[in-house]
Prior knowledge:
heterodimer; A: mainly alpha; 5 domains; two-stranded antiparallel ribbon; 32 helices; 6 strands; 47% helix; globular; B: alpha/beta; Alkaline Phosphatase, subunit A; nine-stranded mixed β-sheet; 13 helices; 33% helix; 17% strand
Amino acid sequence: MPKTFATTWLVVYGFSLASALSNAGEKEIDFRSQVRPILSNKCVFCHGPDAEERQAELRLDTADGLQADLGGYQAVQPGEPERSAIIERITSIDPDVQMPPPDSGKSLSASEIEVIKRWISEGAKWSDHWAYVRPSRTTPPSPGRGDWSLNWIDDFVLARLETEGLQPAPEADRVTLIRRLSFDLTGLPPKPEEVDEFVADKDPQAYEKLVDRLIASERYGERMAVYWLDLVRFADTVGYHGDQDHNISPYRDYVIDAFNDNMPLDQFTREQLAGDLLPGSTTVQKIASGYNRLLQTSHEGGVQPKEYLAIYAADRVRNLSEVWLGATMGCCQCHDHKFDPLTTRDFYSMAAFFADLDEAQHFSKGGNSLPTNRPPEEKLLTERERQQLTELEAQVVGLEDELVTHSESDPVTRELLEKKLTQLREQATSVRESARVTMISVAIEPRTMRVLPRGNWLDDSGEVVLPAVPAHFGPLDLGERRATRLDLANWLTDPERGVGQLTGRVFANRFWYLFFGLGISKVLDDFGGQGEPPVHPELLDNLALEFVESGWDVKHMVKLLVMSRTYRQQSLMSDELLNRDPYNRLVARQSRYRLPAEMVRDSALSISGLLVLDYGGASAKPYQPAGYYRHLNFPTRTYEMHSDRRQWRRGVYVHWQRQFLHPMLKAFDAPQREECTAERPRSNTPLAALVLLNDPTFVESARAFAERIVQEGGESTDARLQYAFRLAVSRAPDQRETELLGELLMSNQRQYEADPTAAAQLTSVGLKPVAEGVNVVELAAWTSVARAILNMSETITRN
Amino acid sequence: MLIRADHATTLNRRTFLRSGGVGLGGLALASLLQRESSGSPDYAGVPGFPHFSGTAKRVIFLCMAGGPSHLETFDYKPELARMNGKAMPESFTAGQPIAQLQGQELKCQGPMTEFRPYGKSGQMISDFLPWHGKIADDICIVRSMVTEQINHDPAHTFMNTGTALSGRPSMGAWVNYGLGCETSDLPGFVVLTSVGGRNPQPIASRQWSAGFLPSRFQGVEFNSSGEPVHYVRNPAGVAKAQQRELVDTLIQLNAHRNQIVRNPEIETRIAAYEMAFRMQTSVPELMDVSDEPQSILDMYGATPGDGSYASNCLLARRLAERGVRFIHLYHRGWDHHGDLVRYMNTCCGLTDKPTWALITDLKQRGMLDDTLVVWGGEFGRTPMFQGKGTESGRDHHIKGFSMWLAGGGVRGGLAYGNTDELGYNSVENVVHVRDLHATMLHTLGIDHQRFSVPFQGLDMRLTGVEESRVVKEILV
């Protein structure tokens, strides 16, 4: 166990992962992955970028600072640890000399001190922070085992595994692969016939065909949108105080459309930040500009508009910097960043980009209606809805013409045509009437933006700032013109004159997270000094460049990742791997984890056959415990669940009440969307167990699932269990599973025979009527079996 | 000491695996390092906690949401009575944040009730709270509170998390994380909100959020009507034995599968289902007060199932008895911009006696000694008149207000700190919300400076980075 212990020690105590995994004895110390994290975590808080709080005028976050003359000596003397003040300080036991000071609550471990010593001995080589330098292209290595790689991702992964003396896992079986791909690309489990077809497909291109089919499905956009909506904190309500509904659902549909249409990410960025400023701004672009309105707002009686405008400005900077820059600029609201080269001035200069937004109207016009008013808003149709309308209108015209040509025809034909025409007209009217109101961005005269000392909105003494990107990244070159949100969007995505390549890296890392369960750099929203240097820096850089150079082609990136051999590995863990790489950072296997909240819901509905795949539209309201909104006021409200097909829509469309998120979503870690969420936790709690056991959505799913089993699963118990298992987990049950569920079935059958009233109660949970002619006792007994299957770990696990 | 947010998880997983005898060498390590939170019930807090032996084992926090007036409860201001109707001196209000009175003429509003001394200590308490008079010697009134947020929603967030920024853990989650829970049948942090009273301010579930801590530490709201906890009741037509049978089958199915996939998450999920099933019994049992004698119900003024503050005070005692670590009650309706007298009568009528009963009941059971009880709103109210409604009221006020603490090592019969003669600014022994947090943690045996979790590159603490102190003067 000594090795195990050492690994634990290093990882738990924050020692950088790269060094824990490599053989620390021989290789030269790498500043970026080994030294900087120590300096950042233990020293830079007091000796860093925050000029106001910097101690002893010493900076340990810059090359100059480390070797600055401190009066005849310097903190770091390359090659000479014994002459480097830093070593004297970190090895001292005198409380007056010792660094970090005892009262800081920080200390260096013996191995950390050793790393710093060795780094100085080896010449104290400096390199800029990895996330702030442009990615560079590395020629993929040629791993020893030449036949394993399917694309260059595999070359990087395998070469690293070989260095570490590890083997990649074998390829997963086809059933696992289609389940994995279906969840990852569409958020839904595969249907049994899809599984059969894929398993039987002898075509060498079978896997790629499957990938192409899933990526082309409209379900793909719905799945990808969930992640984006978390990032930009999309919700149906204002968040603060009365938490009234606001009008924004067309923005959600815009995001889904954008992923389905494979909109390049640079365009996606421009339209959201500055859709209203684009030349000839279209309806779609206006909907997209709703991004700027997604933040939490308040019109509580007694709010001071000045205070809240300051709060909103800060909120926007936080979100923008986390979503696109992977930077935690929020710190700079009150003080210069403690770890990263970002200043308070940068913060308010970024806020100034948004100073033109018309956002103050709701303070007076908001009101406590549902939805509230947050002008500027516009009533409009989404892109898909307009296409649908255009098609319908064309058909109407066609039919009208046809009627003219058939004016002499027999009355039966005419009647048929007229009936069809009426239908079409009604459909067109219904689409027209489905137009929704949505918040948009409108630019007005920008308000004056000042640096707020210590973030204090009452203090008007700070300097006035104009829109500017953080000084560390250099100025925008615009001459005299005031920079706009469009300039900001262009800067974020321009690989040459802006930080496009860095943005590319932020998103490449997140794509990796979506398909491997964790990032190449673990911290998805902080690429700063306190984030984590990437485990595979060259791979991440190449992915970033691939993304940018592909023209920000998201589907291309997704396909590239899932086509790799690395992606196709089994997720089972060998004992060796558990010891060597328990977090699966080196990806010597796939990851397995519980499905996200929406997929847990969608999966149960899909298995049961209840799922309604309507696309877009106003948010849906499924069953919810009575009285859950009783603490809401202004106005008080009762949740009105939808009693029609909207009840069974996908999770991405569920009404997102920030203050009282649906308890099912909450129990499975969906965020309240008050702030940017780049990574959801994956908890495993009794409250989640209660949801799967007792939430009417899942009980109704179980009884609908049971109905399917009884009606379509054959006659024998074995056949039915096979059918059920294949629907839920894409495989047949083994003998033990068959026995266990068979016993549960028989026992419940006996109990419901004795108590048919109970059977009737269980089978009437939910809105879905029981099919005629079904034996209710049998159905109830099978509902118990179905509940067990829907609750199985495997059913809610992606592996 | 630096504690990782996922340490809690890992520790209890390790415990689970050791005690469960799974015995898969490497698996224990994998578990140790898994970052997901766990449902395993035997979590016993952060290793090394408490830092020292505290005087309190648990907290009952009685939140009077809306901001009760200190000037009509615990802060007696004869000078304000003398100034009644006169202009509020500008020396007090210039440059200060103001809520609804923005841009209006500011004039003094004298106390709208009488005060009298109670108990051996002679604490001054208003006539709105006669039952509080009977526990005057048990409570320590802090008359010099200050907070930083002047609107309800952010002020609650500030009171609960120490900051107005979203996404930070509530104090109950911090305590639950730090010390764990003394029961494996109930959550460690329970929230109860009462019905009754006037049109209440909304209260958001983020007030009991676990923030960046694992979600298992979040507050779980118990409802007085409908299902006591969401989805805690079996579906219609499913008997308890059937549910047990189902859970047993499920556990066996999962354990069987785990022989092949060996996923530590499955172990955790099995434990989570066990606890979920136990909660299905323990929660309704807790909420069913039919085993309480009539004399106790009368003492609180509780009618079982009515969802009143009185019933919740009784439930708070029952939760405390069962080992729940942090019990947070919300009673709303204290936002008296107008008609203050009328609404004070309503709010105090609903809360005064039950609060007395809670303290008295804890005391007679010997539980007050190790239960810290805290009473107060998210802020106080202005010494200035506000005229919403037909009669006088007061606006939100953050520069000086009153709260009280009792039990758990707090000195009863003490009045600590003072506001100025008009009750505007806290001027003597000022107690910031952060000081309250530091003091609360101290009674629990936690050094607030050594209680941090890394998040977004910083070592986050409930008491933040600004100065804060344990108010030792109010402790025994």
